Amino acid sequence: MKNISILGSTGSIGTQALEVCEKIGAKVYAITANNNLDLLEEQARKFKVELVSITNKELYTDLKTRLADTNIKVCCGEEGLLEAATYDKSDTVLNSVVGIAGLIPTMEAINAGKDIALANKETLVTGGKLVIEAAKKKGVKILPVDSEHSAIFQCMQGCSEKEIKKIILTASGGPFFGFTYEQLKNVTKAQALKHPNWSMGAKITIDSATLMNKGLELIEAAWLFNKKAEDIEIVVHRESVIHSLIELCDNAVLAQLGTPDMKIPIQYALTYPDRLECDTKCLSLTDYTNLTFYKPDYQTFKALAACKKAIELGGLYPCAVNCANEQAVKMFLDDKISFLRIGELVEEALHFKDYSGNYTLNDIMNTNLEIREYVKTIA
Ligand code: MG
Q: Mean pLDDT over all residues of the chain?
């Protein structure tokens, strides 16, 4: 059984990952969270972890005091996150950190020879080339936790890469499916935070409403499965029953279906290549009399179009659109900009400067800072 570090253990994926670990008997050695002290302490005690880290340094003393009666090593900040990512007893790192903050921990974990169960899509969106190269060099696996990428990965078992002609990425369409540009002008934060099928954190829920999430997933899929943007089709599938599909060279299409429950992809990433029983609801196809499929509206949902353009342009463009979005979503959640402005700002990031060509980890970090500043000034 696997030995695991969970980065972002108090979030939606993190808490479900811990439940999965408990169920399958995986040992959790290290956990981290940004701010949620109560839950982090509870998890640390329950799972008898050896290392716990709180990213917000101001909470370090409090956490240390709370766990003073234990032998658990308490860390904080980015250093603590990296200690958890490289903890020597862990062989797998489940990364469910939100945003580009997940990139360096993934890279460090890869360099320490850990397999990665990847729920942080920004890792591949911002650092795709570097991450894939490092994983190849170190001979470690990157196992997708995102439901769509897990679906594709599951469909691919038994297929060779050259047999896969096309990837079909399904999208729920979010809460504003079918809305016109005019209708989107007046949508509120509360509406945007209400996802029809999945219960997730605030950032990804907003990304689902703008379709930015699907754009990030497109870029992630391109890196993960070595495909060009033109070989990845996005289809809006409102019911979230088909989690994604692949089309093979003989035009056979394989799909992975299930109830919308993240425990299935989380568990598969942690038990791969084996499968174990999972306490999720069984899919009852007859509960769904109508499965629907639509083309996405690239004109109205500008963030999705910008992501498609970014992966075609290559270089640091995907990083730029991602970081513009992170800043824009933050401002939207702080009531500083409108919903539609998010997509416009993401699109603007494509025109800020020439981001083509090769890049280093340092270039990614600089792009993050300069694009955030740019978005703040033009917002
Ligand atoms: Mg997804």
A: 96
Cis amide linkage into residue 273, ω under 30° from 0? yes
CATH superfamily of this structure's domain 3-144: NAD(P)-binding Rossmann-like Domain (3.40.50.720)
Three-state DSSP class for residue 71: coil
Helix axes 202-210 and 212-224, enclosed angle (nearest 10): 100
With beta carbons less than 8 A apart as the criterion, state whether 204 and 146 touch: no
Quote the ligand 1 centre to 237 CA distance (angstroms): 13
Tell how far the Cα of 146 is from the centroid of ligand 1, in angstroms: 5
C-alpha 143 – ligand 1 centre gap (Å): 14
Give dist(CA 214, CA 195) in Å, integer: 14
**Contact call for residues 320 and 355 (beta carbons, < 8 A):** yes
**134-190 pLDDT, tens per residue?**
999 999 999 999 999 999 999 999 999 899 999 999 999 999 999 999 999 999 999
CA 213–ligand 1 middle distance (angstroms): 7
pLDDT at res. 198: 72
Ligand 1: centre distance to CA 214 (Å): 7
- For residue 121, how far is its CA from the centre of ligand 1 (angstroms)? 9
Q: How far apart are CA 348 and CA 363, in angstroms?
A: 19
CA of 185 to the centre of ligand 1 (A): 26
Torsion of CA 125, 127, 133, 136, to 10 degrees: -60
Å from CA of 144 to ligand 1 middle: 10
Distance 31 CA to ligand 1 centre (A): 23
User: Tokens 């047999």 — which residue?
Assistant: 163
Environment class of residue 46 by beta-carbon count within 10 Å: exposed (0-12), middle (13-18) or buried (19+)? exposed
134 alpha carbon to ligand 1 midpoint, in Å? 24
Q: Kindly report the three-state secondary structure assignment for every residue of 88-116.
A: CCCCEEEECCCCHHHHHHHHHHHHCCCEE
| Nearest-5° Cα angle at 14, 364 to 138 | 50
CA 63 to ligand 1 center in whole angstroms: 32
**How close is the Cα of 148 to the center of ligand 1, in Å?**
5
